[in-house]
């Protein structure tokens, strides 16, 4: 974790505060700040490492949402994860280069796939390997995959962590597009298993499944594999059709719109082509939300951003990446734009119960000359 040490006089004065007051202050800090404070002084570290404090902190921050992106500057030694949480007003820089270089050769290209809690999953595309990093425990693990890893933002991968208090994890990934199977990796067994799709699985259970999405870029259709969360998971492959409100949707949808898919929801980014300084770029003009029906057979239109929201987020771009999650009744969409070599991020929330859009204002992350290689939502970084 990147940070500066506090002056010694400040540390001494702070340590004279009642322990209850210090805990009251600490429990409201973001977890990267907690990790830095553990290095300030032994009295502070002893409070922050107490089991009761760690348990209370994790319980209170369990519902927190983090947005992470991974950038790789021209100087590869400065590769870092950047994270933002609703409980703070700034981006946190999480240095992972020292951890990664212990298992990744210099010059290898890493792609950030997804995150869950304090665990971050990367892909080494040239070697068909995954790398799991936990910066909170300072651990890293390389996982060899028996089949080729898709070169790019593979949205068909889920990282499941748990149960709480254990270091067990599970990776579920779709097979290469078109195959009737999926793959599961269990860290306890350190083994990949290939399992066939079961077409007899009850589709009414889609809401309780892990959903893996793969887009057929030729037909513009989406294949979703629904995997049950059991010790021996079953899965079914579905091809949801669009439930058009009228014929105009069918004419409009297939040809236009960048799609971000996750957790049974789909954000469609609408844009127009414009000319800027003799270059053809896109101008964002709105975001739509679609969701799977209960049986998983159709996409249904949910909502679209209001004119007020569009006026705040409208901007030109040349390239876009994004991620989406649904948790605790809220659908979160993050869109990362590149315009003339500068990256910026827009984040939107949709409250399902209130049917209301809000824009989450993010601190500027305008980075120039960096390669952005992955973006993902996650729940809070867990203290240990």
From TrEMBL:
CDD domains: F-box_SF (cd09917). Pfam families: F-box. InterPro entries: F-box-like_dom_sf, F-box_dom, SCF_F-box_component. Residues 11-57 form the F-box domain. This is F-box domain-containing protein.
């Amino acid at each position: 974790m990147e940070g500066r040490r506090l002056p010694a006089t400040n540390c001494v004065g702070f340590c004279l505060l009642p322990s209850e007051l210090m805990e009251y202050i600490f429990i409201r800090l973001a977890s990267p700040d907690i990790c830095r404070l553990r290095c300030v002084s032994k009295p502070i570290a002893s409070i922050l490492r107490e089991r009761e404090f760690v348990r209370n902190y994790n319980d209170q921050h369990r519902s927190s949402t983090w947005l992470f992106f991974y950038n790789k500057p021209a100087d590869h030694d400065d590769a870092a994860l950047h994270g933002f949480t609703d409980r703070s007003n700034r981006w946190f820089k999480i240095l992972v280069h020292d951890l990664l270089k212990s298992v990744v050769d210099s010059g290898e290209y890493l792609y950030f796939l997804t995150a869950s809690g304090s665990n971050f999953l990367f892909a080494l595309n040239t070697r068909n390997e995954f790398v799991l990093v936990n910066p909170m425990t300072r651990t890293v693990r390389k996982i060899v995959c028996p089949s080729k890893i898709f070169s790019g933002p593979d949205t068909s991968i889920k990282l499941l962590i748990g149960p709480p208090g254990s270091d067990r994890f599970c990776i579920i990934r779709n097979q290469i597009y078109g195959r009737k199977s999926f793959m599961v990796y269990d860290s306890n067994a350190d083994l990949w298993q290939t399992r066939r799709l079961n077409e007899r699985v009850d589709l009414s259970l889609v809401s309780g499944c892990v959903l893996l999405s793969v887009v057929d870029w030729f037909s513009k259709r989406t294949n979703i594999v629904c995997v049950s969360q059991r010790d021996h998971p079953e899965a079914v492959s579905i091809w949801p059709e669009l439930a058009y409100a009228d014929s105009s949707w069918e004419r409009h949808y297939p040809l236009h719109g960048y799609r971000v898919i996750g957790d049974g929801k789909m954000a469609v980014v609408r844009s127009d082509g414009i000319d800027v300084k003799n270059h053809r770029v896109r101008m964002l003009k709105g975001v739509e939300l679609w969701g799977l029906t209960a049986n998983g057979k159709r996409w249904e239109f949910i909502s679209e951003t209001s004119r007020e929201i569009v006026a705040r987020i409208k901007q030109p771009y040349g390239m876009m990446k994004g991620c989406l999650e649904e948790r605790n009744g809220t659908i979160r969409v993050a869109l990362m734009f590149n315009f003339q070599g500068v990256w910026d991020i827009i984040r939107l929330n949709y409250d399902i119960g209130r049917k209301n859009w809000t824009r989450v204002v993010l601190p500027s992350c305008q980075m120039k000359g960096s390669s952005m290689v992955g973006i993902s939502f996650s729940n809070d970084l867990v203290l240990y």
